[in-house]
Amino acid sequence: xxxxxxxxxxxxxxxxxxxHSRRQEFGVDxxxxxxxxxxxxxxxxxxxxxxxEDGEVTFFIRGTGYLFxxxxxxxxxxxxxxxxxxxxxxxxxxxxxxxxxxxxxxxIIPTDGEWYATxxxxxxxxxxxxxxxxxxxxxxxxxxxxxxxxxxxxxPFREETIKPVKFVADGRFTVYDFGRESFGRVCLVTxxxxxxxxxxxxxxxxVSYGKEGGHSSLVYERLSERGSHELASRAFRYVAVLGKxxxxxxxxEMLPLNYAADFRCDDPKVKKIFDLxxxxxxxxxxxxxxxxxxxxxxCWSGDAYQSYMxxxxxxxxxxxxxxxxxxxxxxxxxxxxINTINDYSALLIIGTAEYVFRSGDTEFLRFxxxxxxxxxxxxxxxxxxxxxxxxxxGDWVFVDWSDIDKTxxxxxxxxxxxQVYRSMADMAGWLGMADIYTVxxxxxxxxxxxxxxxxxxxxxxxxxxxDRNHISRHANIFAIIYDFCTRxxxxxxxxxxxxxxxxxxxxxxxxxxxxLMALCKMGRLDVAQQTLTSYWGGMLSLGATSVWxxxxxxxxxxxxxxxxxxxYGKSLCHAWGAGPICxxxxxxxxxxxTSFGSETFTVAPDPGLYETFTAKVPMRDGVVEVRxxxxxxxxxxxxxxxxxxxxxxxxxIIPGVVCEI
Amino acid sequence: xxxxxxxxxxxxxxxxxxxHSRRQEFGVDxxxxxxxxxxxxxxxxxxxxxxxEDGEVTFFIRGTGYLFxxxxxxxxxxxxxxxxxxxxxxxxxxxxxxxxxxxxxxxIIPTDGEWYATxxxxxxxxxxxxxxxxxxxxxxxxxxxxxxxxxxxxxPFREETIKPVKFVADGRFTVYDFGRESFGRVCLVTxxxxxxxxxxxxxxxxVSYGKEGGHSSLVYERLSERGSHELASRAFRYVAVLGKxxxxxxxxEMLPLNYAADFRCDDPKVKKIFDLxxxxxxxxxxxxxxxxxxxxxxCWSGDAYQSYMxxxxxxxxxxxxxxxxxxxxxxxxxxxxINTINDYSALLIIGTAEYVFRSGDTEFLRFxxxxxxxxxxxxxxxxxxxxxxxxxxGDWVFVDWSDIDKTxxxxxxxxxxxQVYRSMADMAGWLGMADIYTVxxxxxxxxxxxxxxxxxxxxxxxxxxxDRNHISRHANIFAIIYDFCTRxxxxxxxxxxxxxxxxxxxxxxxxxxxxLMALCKMGRLDVAQQTLTSYWGGMLSLGATSVWxxxxxxxxxxxxxxxxxxxYGKSLCHAWGAGPICxxxxxxxxxxxTSFGSETFTVAPDPGLYETFTAKVPMRDGVVEVRxxxxxxxxxxxxxxxxxxxxxxxxxIIPGVVCEI
Lengths: 661, 661
Prior knowledge:
The structure is a homodimer. By secondary structure, chain A is an alpha+beta fold. Helices cover 29% and strands 26% of the residues of chain A. Chain A has 14 helices and 32 strands. In chain A, strands 15, 16, 17, 18, 19, 20 and 21 form a seven-stranded antiparallel sheet that branches. Chain A has a six-stranded antiparallel sheet with strand order 8-7-10-4-12-13, with no helix packed on it. In chain A, strand 2 and strand 3 form a beta hairpin. The radius of gyration of chain A is 27 Å and the shape is globular. The interface between A and B is large, with 58 and 58 residues.
């Protein structure tokens, strides 16, 4: 069946551009501050096709353009008759806005993934795939766009109309409660000009519209004219209306994802937390993996990196991972780091390798390769004479919001660079290319060990260019996660850093995710489980219907909603809060791929504090079910390649047969 | 005074994109087949300003965005009060279509050329010009866009309403004759649905609408609804209307250029030809230097290269040269040659150097430099192991429409490469950078002389990879123009190639320009003068009101209008026909710059066949007047740096004083 086709990656780049133009705060547009790529305005499409029967085809073009049908020029929008047999079709398109795209109305000559596209040119002798110029590739397309009038600027969410579960009059406002965190387009009929809609993830936020300074709700709009409205897409649980209106409902926009994963244990709260995390993650998995749905709604590489991992243990939704990675790379050349952050460039490359390892998707890697190498070259071009990452003009050496000594070369950045080298080596290997990276990784490791490791502290210090010898958790966590250090040093780090209350605590859920993963990896799953109950459980007790951007149990009432200097600046639905899904599946149920494409995997359960649990963990195109009951483990899956590892024993898992230890 | 400001070069890139989407033939859109760059969608603007007084400013943004005024976030469209003294203003903008742009309504804080812009980011600590990241530059702006509602997609032509000088009823058509070749928007009122407008550069073309195959007029449109119309911009002298209409007129669009140049001699026809050329060139000098105004209306680097030269002897309109060069470079990286043609990439670099030499505009060169080097690197990346230009996949080794042996390495391409090296050496020198190019030029020259020169033929052969030993004029012309060969060899070439009727004649006005320049340079101005009278004079006798794309005196009637397989495929207003302006000014009047920025120049008249002539030749920001009368020359100019060279004598030209020999 025909679909609209475009230059591959340009749909993602176009949606990324639209997405990053949509943020508003206090009624003011707030586009992102980093570089955004644009789609190619001019694209040529090509296909050689052997038609089984005679037929007629009409092509449609987004932008301006024309076609060559067997070398004869013809117009879009005009039917062309053709006979059975071989035909060569070329289309030249140029769109001064949106993305250039092509669509045919024929099932005999459909526009589909079999076409090629290039932002370059066909040669004078016509196009020859064998002589592909740089940048000539298989087209992109989506099953959602099969209509000739399809709107490519509109992302194909699954839509559902929801109604408020209740409403109350509160002073000047009528407040509609939709029961839980939602995302979509509020619809209503206003009976006067100038009605104001104020959105709230909390009730207090919705009714705070109009307060001065940072005390108002973050997102609101004024409807200048009376009438029927379908508003822009927003996050909300509560909608406060100021002025006469009726018929308030909302059309939600969600990806149609399959909830393959599950986790239950003897503590019933854990299942509730798992569902809370899953729903939060689902809301944030949109055009791309977003940080959160209320405020930024931007695509941050560090947040997205964690989302790839959570996604693999929840939806295994390859498409959103691929869209996100594609959008984050944008188009070379690179003049600044991804999101302007040094670590985020590294995490994009590392995340790419991890996705390809788990999925086995070398086709996607091949599509990305020139971007990966361009970003790698950009990173390398900014190293210092020692081969260390340092902050160059325009760089944001982020790591985390914490007290880190960022003088000169920072340990966390170097360990990420080490992992970049190893990721490049892996990816080059999967593509059958030379490995010029491992020697660099080895040399860098040696240098880092020499410059940053403090034997007396049992830890890597933040900076090797400073006299402070300051220790923070961050580099030490990365050293464990990325198998940078020996097991012996990792255990030392565990004792002297992770379990040492004198080392400044992690304060952001972002790095908390990495710390929990490191603890799980070091066999301290119980700490993660305790945090799950106290931290995530705490939000649940306060009535959260999605996981917050941050949570401090010591705070009271609306203090919970404040952040970044605004009373309601905090996002109450943030993807990085969904981490438990990953550590429950990966470390508690213990399901982990062990070879390229997840062809083989181990199931090595670690119950930690739980006496019983039942887990469904997605893997490849199937599910692994793991049951644990007081010392006994059983695994059932239809997949090949599994090995159960438990209590010092190993057993191959036979597909369709319960495997027990 | 405030102007809309944008990232420099992006306005040109945007107009280039629009321009290349506008071609239509036989009712079908026909965008260009080569790569087109897009503007940066997201741009940050910056300025530090010391205000002399208090005031209020409102900023306006194209796209979405906001501002930081002294670090405080504020919205576009909302007035901000400020006090006298220093302020720092930053704006973040993102446009999902068009170009992101900024405008202020204040004369105290105007948006003007003093601002900086970057498609990258400001740092977390705000912007610091001293730490400019790559791509941070002074903004672009134009005096035409001083209104907050200005339409940046509309190029600021000078408009004038013209009326037909007569109209006739011809069968089904009413044909309006505007008296001469024109370009603009036809306006009319139609009294029925479906009225058809057919454009003609010739009468015959206008009334040929509706004929099958290639026999119709090239450009026409059907107005589906009755009413008042202002149509898209087109080229025409004749407008044939099929259906009931009245009030036919046109709004012409021209650049407001100053006719500084003039040339008259004892043959009155020459002045008419000069004016014909000047008008033709004026019509084709638009957003950019176009090939012609009817058919392609595209920006071709080879055509444009000749236009820079003609322009220097007619309008010295730097802005159009700069816009053209900027649009042709577009944005690196390069995956294909400019217009896909190897020689056109070379001519862009050569043309850049020539423009900078003549104008002294190092600021423009600095702006272009990363593009120049990227294009140079692209050219070099495709050389063969001998260092020769060869046709790689996707390349179009054009040189000219002629019988040239294009096997392997082609001489004309190598001589252009030689000139590219020399141009790079010059440009690097003007920017105070190292010359890594001259050694390459010297090595290449040696190799070319060895591989291509045929002593017995007294010429360079087309290909060194072929047994044909075929000689054509092209490489030999380039060898003279670019001082590639010794004077001795040039004279040999003159005899054995240029004046040898056995060597295939040049058939395109494009290469005819180069040949005439070579002849003039070799002291054979008389040949150029004869061609002027016969070739250009011939078109004039046939009633041409602008110079045609091609002209064959042997053809009859409407044969003159056919080209590229269509009865009216030929453009009757083509820039490359304006070459006489250049050779009359440069060789007949003999005015030629001799140092960087045209700081010094010679006036070395060569009357050729003329007994008397009077020439006004523009130079820098002035004019040089040259009079010749039967062996006596006098020169008058307000400019410094001139030397009169005539009859074996040399005299310095004193500004404001007639200099005679």
